[in-house]
Amino acid sequence: MKTKMIFLDLDGTLLDDNKKLPKENREAIDEALEQGHKVLICTGRPLSSAIKLLPLLGLDKPGCYAITFNGGLIYDAGEKKAIYQVTLPLEQVKYVFDKAYEYRKIHIQTYMDEGFICEYDTPESRFYEKSTQCDRKVVKDIFEELDGREPCKMLAIAYGCDREHIEGFRESLLEYSEGKMDVCFSCYEYLEFMPAGINKGNSIKWMCDHLNIPIENTIAVGDAENDITMIKTAGIGVVMKNANDDMKQCGNYITEKDNNEGGVAEVIKKFMLKA
Asked: What is the mean predicted confidence (pLDDT) over 62-70?
């Protein structure tokens, strides 16, 4: 039997709108593992958030992995250590932070091993902390707190504004970010900054090389812009029913069920499990 490997986005895909795991999805994951397949979460969330979910998913065992920070850090759950990590130079982090403060009405945060850090206590940062179960630390000076350590990612969130405002912020950074950073939306108002070449699609290629699994035996499931690279890279690219119409042009298959109805279970049963 061919070993298949599925890569699952979390928010809007594996988890429902209340950030809970539908029972059907957990049951399908268990069955896929029992049949010898690989199931990986592939998320923009930080490692500190993803680790808390692995036991709930049954993916905290030897032979299980988690892709976090949109591919910036890959974690071996059995060995309990990072096996791949790429970070952003501090000069790039400072440039984006300074631009966010100039642009106004943009909440900007970055990450350390234990959670995320920001310089202002905003409703957006409190909501992010609650929804991702990621510890938040508000500090006077980001770079004093980082103390020379480079983060894997930055996240910008527009507050009190519509999508056009943060789109404008993205456009203001296009010239600077070219060749330095990958920039994409992970949901309607979350704009992510990763090192150049770091994305979910390239993390699939890395895992295929690491585990010697042909890329044609892979499946990727997602719903947002930061999922496009993995949907296009995998042998089978799946877009969730609840994704926007533009996203639905990217995949080979669109789920009949959305993220609240166990859409991931539908994919696992259709493309992975033996009858």
From this structure: 97
